[in-house]
Amino acid sequence: IRAKVVGEGANLAVTQKGRIDYALHGGHIDTDAIDNSAGVNASDIEVNVKIAVSTLVRNGTFDQAARNAFLAELTTEVAALCLRNNYLQSLALSLAERAGTAALPDHRALIESLEARGQLSRAVEALPDDASLNARAQTGKALTRPELATVLAYAKNSLYADLLAGKAPDDVYLSHELFRYFPPTLNERYPDAVVGHRLRREVIATVLANAMINRGGPAFVVKLMAATSTDPGQVAAAFCLARDAYGLERLYGEVDALDGQIPGVTQLALYAELQALLERATLWLLRNADWTQPLGDLVLTYAQGVTDVQGLIGS
Fold first, then answer.
1. Containing H/E element for 76?
2. pLDDT at position 251, please?
């Protein structure tokens, strides 16, 4: 293949070994699971929206015609949510790829952790063995983008299962992540249908896992757990505390707005700075915050501190 970039159609147009070989020789390729994830994501959101709306049918808010009309009204918003999710997932891969060999020890630790838990087989997923990883490190080569795509997926699935098994989805503050998943119109008009969703814990765990891995990187949680001996739920709480206290969503949005306005490498460097800030702040908070306090109170306390320091810098 002489093309510099390959974007796959569905149904495994390229084998994983082929992708990796192509990438090692300078080609740019993800996996079909990445390139075609919008369809799966759309179906996922559609099902969960219909579950929420079904309660409105049962309580008499909608008849069948009104239900169908309301679902059609949400089409554009569901599409926007899917595009956003795929934007962030591709960005996560680009940042992991940009980190190069500096991130290889963390990615290796993640792979070993998943293996130890029986959640990953390197042979099945065509991931490099220890000797191959050592050889790559010596020659300055990190995991390829197709390999990172695989590791990213396993990291999300593992974190999702851990969060769901813990108490994170039941935390009052973290439960607000539920509203990030659904179309704004549904959230605004019928919040009770969202809050009462029968899969609310699963949805919250999904949103948290995606956010933490997309923003922090594939090895984010494993790295912080190793550094602090905490559990995934505690890392999730510290992640949200760092994100919200520093107002990172606003900063992400400002960098997003630079699409097509500045060189991509510069934009990725800005995202990488925010990722480094997120990791440092999450680690510090895990070690120093008073976790006997409600998470919402901690967010207010630290957000005020950040605002105060910003004011001093501004003066």
1. helix 75-99
2. 97
Continuous segment of H or E residues that includes residue 5 = strand 5-6
Model confidence pLDDT, tens digit, residues 186-229: 999 999 999 999 999 999 999 999 999 999 999 999 999 999 99
pLDDT digits (tens, 9 = 90+) for 234-284: 999 999 999 999 999 999 999 999 999 999 999 999 999 999 999 999 999
Count of alpha carbons within 13 angstroms of residue 180, beta-carbon side: 17
Please, how many CA atoms are within 13 Å of residue 67, restricted to the half-sphere of its CB?
A: 16
Q: What is the mean pLDDT of the chain?
A: 96
For 205, residues 6+ apart whose C-beta sits below 8 A from its C-beta are 160, 163, 164, 168, 169
Encode burial over 170-192: b for 16+ CB neighbours within 10 A, e otherwise: ebebbeebbbbbbbeebbeebee
Q: Which residue has the tokens 């120093």?
A: 288
Confidence (pTM): 0.94
How far out from the chain centre does Cα 228 lie?
Answer: 21
**The tokens of 276 are what?**
């480094």
Cα–Cα distance measured from residue 199 to residue 65, given in angstroms and rounded to the nearest whole number: 25
Dihedral angle at the C-alpha atoms of 126, 131, 132, 134, nearest 10 degrees? 140
Q: Which of these, 204, 182, 103, lies nearest to 147 by C-alpha position?
A: 103
CA distance 157 to 221: 12
Contact 129, 169 (CB under 8 A): no
Cβ neighbours around 313 below 10 Å, total: 7
Look at the chain and count its residues.
315
pLDDT tens figures, 107-163: 999 999 999 999 999 999 999 999 999 999 999 999 999 999 999 999 999 999 999
